């Protein structure tokens, strides 16, 4: 067949049936047709319809007619024939071949350093799949929609070679799943212009070998000096250290000033020494058990965080490696929250100055649901950090005993990121230059599009999971291959020697690194020791302070009225819903002191007074703008707005001229990632009241790992102060097992070492004072608030104005009935939360004036002094009864009985009134709920029986 150009042959009228078929595909999915066809059809869409209107869905007949007319105009110059149609078809098939390589070329890439399996057969990547024969290889086709060179045409042979070099080498990139055409074209241009080939000069190659030598050298040093100790070795994945080095240097070059890193165990010690510049001698001291022990609990060395400042071509970059527990991947949302706080502090709206980097294991990335939740946050307003660079140390094994058939249900461990259209760069860890290129491209993509991107470094794990197991027991085939592998550093050193960069270069570097290890010297040069950014937060004022309940949280009456007027006066341009309008009219009356203040107003005034004083407030959770129980209405939606993204007004953002920020975010339906994010935010920003509100308190169940591993224990393990506040709606209202209990008992079980505050306020003034106390006191501890549901609108839970302009948070509230004679009191009922109001009502019914009722508003740290003072008021009381809504094996009973016993008078007995022990937090049947509620109230006033504890 004669050689000819097929660049314009598709214009001939004989092609009309084929064009119509392609147009069908275009209408169904524009991305399914080649770019040049799509561009033609896009242009055709702009042609006015016959009736003069604009029509997006152009009918088939005009398309065919368009081609027919173009054919007629060409008929004298070149007659249409079956040969023309055949060439046109081949051009289309060539475009399909190009699209196939862009779509699935990564599946045929050379990615496995162990070469355990043959590369799969992928028919779509063969010309024969499209009816293109050997004879067609030397036909010249249009290459107009590729970036392989300046020539408009290429032979099929040349094109095929270029495609395979670009998409099927040691770097395979997935990007065609993106719905953004600009991003797809960006990747095509970046990859095809260089055919996915890195370009490093001699010095850069030597530096790369130096990083591989450091990565391998540390592991081998530790392996010989500390035999049998856990370290979660990086051997087999040394290219990861090269990737980290390249990422930091290039990020600094692009203006990044801070990088926050989250990673689990694998390679963590290597990162500490060879990336962040931790002194090797300090690491060795931890192995030798000679490091200082200055924390109540401490943690193992491969959970420790670290920070340093590194020189880059763009200036100093501050590196922070987040502390994290063993629970895989849970640190990831914490890092994102920390990054967002740092960005907010800098006014870095697009993430240009602070970069999150997350390092994953292959099985954990797709296996741990917190990653899906964190990815789902990445493009939302309240949680976006301008894109994260994800690096996967893919040792192809998951956990040691995993059978490959059980690793996952997707082709790649990275497939979960396709939920947010993120590109993935799969790269062979044995080609460190390709790893560097992948890192460069990933960073450039992130900085250009402000989206997540993944670099999947496919490597292996030379040793067992923790150096104490024998992986060959369950993976004999894989570890036979690994035993024969010379190591990435050795392969690269030999490659550079063959290129004439020094026959002994590799060995010389090994000796030099070993000498540095023996002397315990820095392996990262240069590490800045005296640099301090103006954006760094000084935590010193919040550290080393002893616990105190006292805080001056009242505000002057004039300030109260000024702020109240500001947050209850709505602009004339805003048209609120009638129900919301009534709420704000009522709040205005509360602000003037005309009526008592309810819970919503008390909370609002706490927020308003804080932002006016310079403390920012960040509130997030499901439905928190409106409030799950429609009590908050922090965001007012204009009922006359015409667009969904317009017409909202937030009064708390208009308190004062130079106020601090007030941010309220309705989160996605996520608990674990969102709570982790907010913990991370609070860990980086002590001057912001950071609050996570559960839709119902028991939704914290879905975030229990964050509560256990960070909130409750972060300070005793890592010395990390944190002032995060949790608002957990709690109260037995007959709403069934899942909407009654915030699982108070779990928090009480975690309470020790004054690690957090646990409160259950019952009035509007109490929520006002406890929120203000959280910021006014000069120390930061997590605060858990069990907030009410029915009390939000209970008039008995409102407070007079004087309780806001005077007073403070009361850890214990004593008997409030004036006519109770203390000398005649025979029983003291102690309680917490909503049940107090039920008890008061029951006492009135029974006319039991010999019973005093005491509220414990702060459950931990238990207010011994305040509670003992209340007990002493009733010297003739023989009984103290703890009454709770929750079942006996839940709630506070098992924790609080010992606290009460410590403060009882001699001869007094302690009893329990509440629901019987239960496997479920609450019953689901309404009648049974009522029966239990009636019973527990009767118990509170009845003669003690069953278990009693006598002083």
Q: Would you give an account of this structure?
A:
It contains 30 helices and 26 strands. The chain has 951 residues and is α/β, with parallel strands linked by helices. It folds into four domains: 9-194, no CATH class; 204-528, Thiamin diphosphate (ThDP)-binding fold, Pyr/PP domains (Rossmann fold); 557-805, Rossmann fold (3-Layer(aba) Sandwich); 820-950, Rossmann fold (3-Layer(aba) Sandwich). The radius of gyration is 34 Å and the shape is globular. The chain starts with 15 loop residues before the first helix and ends with a strand.
Briefly summarize what is shown:
This protein has 951 residues and is of the alpha/beta class. The chain folds into 4 domains: 9-194, no CATH class; 204-528, Rossmann fold; 557-805, Rossmann fold (3-Layer(aba) Sandwich); 820-950, Multifunctional 2-oxoglutarate metabolism enzyme, C-terminal domain (Rossmann fold, 3-Layer(aba) Sandwich). The chain contains 30 helices and 26 strands.
Largest sheet, strands/sense/barrel: 9 strands, mixed
| CATH architectural type of the largest domain | 3-Layer(aba) Sandwich
Strand content: 5-15%
Major sheet: arrangement of strands: 3-9-10-8-7-4-6-5-11
Tell me the number of helical segments per DSSP (H or I, 4 or more residues long).
30
Q: What would CATH call the class of the largest domain?
A: Alpha Beta
What oligomeric state is this? single chain
Distance between the termini: 106 Å
What is the approximate shape?
globular
Q: What is the mean predicted local confidence, pLDDT?
A: 89
Number of domains: 4
The CATH topology of the largest domain corresponds to Rossmann fold
**Poorly predicted runs of 5 or more residues:** 1-17, 47-58, 75-80
Q: Could you tell me the number of beta strands?
A: 26
At the fourth level of CATH, the homologous superfamily of the largest domain is Thiamin diphosphate (ThDP)-binding fold, Pyr/PP domains
Q: Give the % helix.
A: 25-40%
């Amino acid at each position: 067949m004669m050689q000819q150009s097929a660049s314009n042959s598709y214009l001939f009228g004989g092609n009309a049936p084929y064009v119509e078929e392609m147009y069908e595909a275009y209408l169904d999915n524009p991305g399914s047709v080649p770019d040049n066809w799509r561009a033609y059809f896009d242009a055709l869409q702009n042609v006015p319809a016959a009736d003069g209107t604009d029509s997006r869905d152009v009918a088939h007949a005009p398309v065919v007619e368009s081609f027919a007319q173009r054919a007629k105009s060409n008929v004298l110059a070149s007659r249409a024939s079956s040969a023309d149609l055949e060439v046109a078809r081949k051009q289309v098939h060539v475009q399909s071949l190009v699209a196939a390589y862009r779509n699935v070329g990564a599946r045929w890439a050379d990615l496995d350093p162990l070469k355990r399996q043959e590369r799969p057969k992928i028919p779509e990547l063969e010309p024969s799949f499209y009816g293109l024969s050997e004879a067609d290889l030397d036909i010249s086709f249009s290459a107009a929609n590729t970036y392989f060179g300046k020539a408009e045409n290429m032979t099929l042979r040349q094109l095929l070679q270029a495609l395979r070099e670009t998409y099927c080498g040691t770097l395979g990139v997935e990007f065609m799943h993106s719905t953004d055409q600009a991003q797809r074209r960006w990747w095509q241009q970046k990859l095809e212009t260089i055919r996915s080939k890195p370009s490093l000069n001699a010095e850069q190659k030597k530096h790369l070998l130096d990083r591989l030598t450091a990565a391998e050298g540390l592991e081998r040093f530790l392996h010989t000096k500390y035999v049998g100790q856990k370290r979660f070795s990086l051997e087999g994945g040394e290219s990861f250290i090269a990737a980290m080095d390249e990422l930091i240097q290039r990020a600094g070059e692009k203006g990044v000033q801070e990088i926050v890193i989250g990673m689990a165990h694998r390679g963590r010690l290597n990162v500490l020494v060879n990336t962040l510049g931790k002194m090797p001698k300090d690491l060795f001291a931890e192995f030798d058990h000679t490091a200082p022990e200055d924390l109540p609990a401490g943690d193992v060395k491969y959970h420790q965080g670290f920070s340093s400042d590194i020189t880059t071509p763009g200036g100093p970059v501050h590196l922070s490696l987040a502390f994290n527990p063993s629970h895989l991947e849970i640190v990831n949302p914490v890092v994102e929250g920390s990054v967002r706080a740092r960005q907010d502090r800098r006014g870095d709206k697009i993430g240009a100055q602070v970069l999150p980097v997350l390092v994953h294991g292959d099985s954990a990335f797709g296996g741990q649901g917190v990653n899906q939740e964190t990815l789902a946050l990445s493009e939302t307003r309240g949680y976006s950090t301008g894109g994260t660079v994800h690096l996967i140390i893919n040792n192809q094994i998951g956990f040691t005993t995993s059978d490959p058939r059980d690793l996952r249900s997707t082709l790649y461990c990275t497939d979960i990121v396709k939920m947010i259209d993120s590109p993935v760069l799969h790269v062979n860890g044995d080609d460190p230059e390709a790893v560097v290129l992948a890192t460069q491209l990933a960073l450039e993509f992130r900085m250009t599009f402000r989206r997540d991107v993944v670099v999947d470094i496919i490597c292996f794990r030379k040793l067992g999971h923790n150096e104490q197991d024998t992986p060959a027991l369950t993976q004999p085939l894989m570890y036979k291959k690994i035993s024969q592998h010379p190591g990435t550093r050795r392969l690269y050193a030999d490659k550079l020697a063959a290129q004439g960069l020094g026959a002994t270069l590799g060995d010389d570097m090994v000796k030099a690194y070993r000498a540095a290890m023996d002397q315990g010297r820095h392996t990262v040069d240069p590490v800045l020791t005296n640099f301090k950014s103006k954006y760094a937060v000084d935590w010193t004022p919040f550290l080393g302070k002893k616990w105190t309940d006292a805080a001056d949280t009242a505000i002057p009456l004039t300030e109260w009225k000024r702020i109240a007027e500001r947050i209850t006066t709505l602009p004339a341009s805003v048209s609120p819903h009638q129900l919301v309008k009534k709420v704000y009219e009522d709040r205005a009356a509360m602000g003037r002191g005309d009526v008592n203040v309810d819970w919503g107003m008390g909370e609002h005034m706490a927020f308003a007074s804080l932002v006016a004083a310079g403390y920012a407030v960040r509130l997030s959770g499901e439905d928190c703008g409106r409030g799950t129980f429609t009590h908050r209405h922090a965001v007012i939606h204009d009922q006359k707005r015409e667009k969904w993204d317009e017409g909202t007004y937030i009064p708390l953002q208009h308190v004062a001229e130079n106020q601090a920020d007030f941010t309220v975010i309705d989160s996605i339906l996520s608990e674990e990632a969102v709570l982790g994010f907010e913990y991370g935010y609070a860990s980086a920003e002590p001057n912001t009241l950071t609050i996570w509100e559960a839709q119902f308190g028991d939704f914290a169940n879905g975030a229990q790992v964050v509560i256990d591993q960070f909130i409750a224990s972060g300070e005793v393990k890592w010395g990390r102060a944190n002032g995060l506040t949790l608002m957990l709606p709690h109260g037995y209202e007959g709403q069934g097992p899942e909407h009654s209990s915030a699982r108070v008992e779990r928090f009480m079980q975690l309470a020790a070492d004054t690690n957090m505050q646990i409160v259950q306020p019952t009035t509007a003034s109490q929520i006002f004072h406890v929120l203000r106390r959280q910021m006014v006191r000069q120390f930061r501890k997590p605060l858990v608030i069990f907030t009410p549901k029915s009390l939000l609108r209970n008039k008995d839970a409102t407070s007079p104005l004087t309780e806001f302009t005077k007073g403070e948070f009361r850890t214990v509230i004593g008997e409030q009935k004036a006519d109770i004679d203390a000398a005649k009191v025979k029983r003291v009922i102690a309680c917490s939360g909503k049940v107090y109001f039920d008890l008061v009502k029951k006492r009135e019914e029974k006319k039991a004036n010999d019973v005093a009722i005491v509220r414990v508003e702060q459950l931990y740290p238990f207010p011994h002094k305040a509670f003992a003072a209340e007990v002493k008021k009733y010297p003739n009381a023989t009984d103290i009864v703890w009454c709770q809504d929750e079942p006996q094996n839940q709630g506070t009973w098992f924790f609080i009985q010992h606290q009460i016993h410590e403060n009882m008078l001699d001869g007094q007995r302690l009893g329990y009134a509440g629901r019987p022990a239960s496997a479920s937090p609450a019953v689901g049947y309404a009648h049974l709920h009522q029966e239990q509620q009636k019973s527990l109230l009767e118990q509170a006033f009845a003669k003690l029986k069953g278990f009693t504890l006598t002083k």
